[in-house]
Amino acid sequence: MEKVKTLYELIGDDRLQDLINSFYAKVFDSPILAPLFNQTNADIIKDKQFSFLTQFLGGPPRYMEKYGPPQMRRRHMPHAITNEAKDEWLSLMQISIQELDLADNLKTALYNCFPKVAQHMVNS
């Protein structure tokens, strides 16, 4: 019986990094989202996201090894995350996913990982 591959395995490190680079280029240009990120170095933000998404999508526990337990809601609490910010985040993520060289079913599966988590981060 063949082992089912995780989204991480199907996407791979290079495409995951491409996604993060594309996404954060949009985030840092967004008048809604940029203020949430302007207190932290962009390379640190992207490394944390790469580490988190690797683990979140079924890859090695990079985030846990480097930064400790994800506890994403607690880590996001210092930032005022509104429904508007969540919607913008999801929109920019969807656009960035569509730019990837991936089959449409993988793009859909990848995007579908985010709405519930994004809603959980709303705190304002």
Structural commentary:
There is one protein chain. This protein has eight helices and no strands. It has 124 residues and is mainly α. The protein has one domain (7-121): Globin-like, CATH 1.10.490. The mean pLDDT is 94.
Rg (C-alpha, Å): 14 Å
Portion of residues in helices?
A: 55-70%
Strand content: under 5%
Q: What is the CATH superfamily? A: Globins
Average pLDDT taken over every residue? 94
Distinct helical segment count: 8
Main beta-sheet strand count, sense and barrel state: none
Model regions low in confidence, pLDDT < 50 over at least 5 residues = none
The CATH first-level class comes to: Mainly Alpha
CATH topology: Globin-like
Shape: globular
Do you know the CATH architecture? Orthogonal Bundle
Overall structural class, as computed from helix and strand content, comes to: mainly alpha
Label this structure with key terms.
Globin-like, 68% helix, 8 helices, mainly alpha, 0% strand, 124 residues
Any chance you could write out the topology, listing elements then pairs?
Layout: H1 7-29, H2 34-37, H3 42-56, H4 62-67, H5 72-76, H6 83-98, H7 104-111, H8 115-121
Helix pairs in contact: 1-3, 1-6, 6-7, 6-8
In short:
This protein is an all-alpha fold and 124 residues long. The protein is built from eight helices and no strands.
